[in-house]
Amino acid sequence: MRSIITIIGYATVVAATAQGPMSLSLKQAMDMAATQSYTVQNSTLEAEKARAKIKEVTAIGLPQIAATGNLGNYIKVPTQVIPNFFGSDPETIEVQFGIPWSLTGGVQLNQLLFDGSYLVGLRASRELKQKSDKELEQAATNARAQAAKAYLSVLAAEEGVRLIGESLPVVEKAAADATAMVQQGLMESTDADRLTVQMEETKDQQRNLQQQSVVARAYLSLVLGLPTGTPLTLTDALQPLLDDPAEAGLVDMPLDVAQHVDDQVAQSLVRISALDVQNKKAAYYPQLSGFINYQQQYFSETFNPGKGPWFPASQWGLSLNVPIFSSGLRQQQVKQARLTLDQANVNLKATEQRLMTEHLQQQAKLRAAQDSYQTGKRNLALSKSIFERVSVKFTEGVGSSFELTQENANYLTTQQTYIQRIVDLLQARTDMRKALDLY
Q1: Predicted confidence (pLDDT) per residue in 381-400, tens digit
Q2: CATH number of the domain encompassing residue 398
Q3: How many angstroms separate the CA atoms of 60 and 47, rounded?
Q4: How would you classify residue 33: left for phi > 0, otherwise alpha for psi between -120 and 50, otherwise beta?
Q5: Model's pTM, two decimal places?
Q6: Cβ pair 257, 355 in contact under 8 A
Q7: Residue 318, domain member (yes or no)
Q8: Is residue 98 assigned to a domain?
Q9: 194-235 tens-digit pLDDT
């Protein structure tokens, strides 16, 4: 497991070197992917949103202060008709209550005193933060695995280029010698043409692998969050990685499901769902809040608030809200929350079973890939030895061009098989590490 602080801290280091040519080991590439890949960047922002959400929910229970102001001006003061208390003639009189100008300014403090939903919400927001942190770790794990596959694919493609490069000079020399012998009348043109075809086929195979290497490097840049075309120098060699005892021992490592990041995300979802049930139940509880305000009021026939008079007013109070009857609304909300909790528990069990099944599958794949790699390695050495012996015979004039081209074709096929088995082995190891949550 990797701490979020370590991941975020590494981002500041690689940011300064991400613009020009870069030299990267496999570990450095994985660390960079864990901070700079686009998926991780999005997950980092989600984690920051979760931290902001905690502060938002916490602020609900803290004092809230608001200022208000009202300005009013009657273009014509309203008139009311009231009974004539002073006589019977007339029976009613017209009066105007109010004056043209009024100005009110005030400040009110509100404080939540008790709300069950708020208390549950605090716990849920903290659990949401933990879940987002685990999802960030999950995204970093996936990015590391992608970077490892991309890095190793580049090394495998370049190894194929190197292997073909070892046999290409032999075929080129044989084709050149055959052409010279044809010109001297010592060999038929068919034999020379056969060697020329084989030479071109070998070069074509080498060009294909070189193109695969270019594509793999472009994908590696994408995984690392680097601009396309950024020059990359890979400092780790392929063979030491293949021979690493720690990598070979992955197949026998046990799986601790409870410590796997996928399982921890599922566990967090269960806890959040349980808190949601409590939150819906809290809707049955009363809510209590308090307030205190202070205001100043100004009334005048003309607008001149600077001279007054101003009239102060102040008040405090409590507000109590007691839920009584909701026609089954709250009951159904609790029921839905419980069903969501049941779904989260099912998801947790499914996740645990999936992780165990994937571990068993990756064990079988890795064992098969390791056996196939060893077989391919032995076959490559044997095929190379045969090709070299036939090349010597051809050079000494005791071997035919047909035999040389045939063995070169067999050697090319064996090389391709060997490279593919290297790729299969490296991918199987990467998938095994991911299954064990070792990234």
Answers
A1: 999 999 888 888 877 777 77
A2: 1.20.1600.10
A3: 21
A4: alpha
A5: 0.76
A6: yes
A7: no
A8: no
A9: 888 888 888 898 899 899 999 999 999 999 988 888 899 999
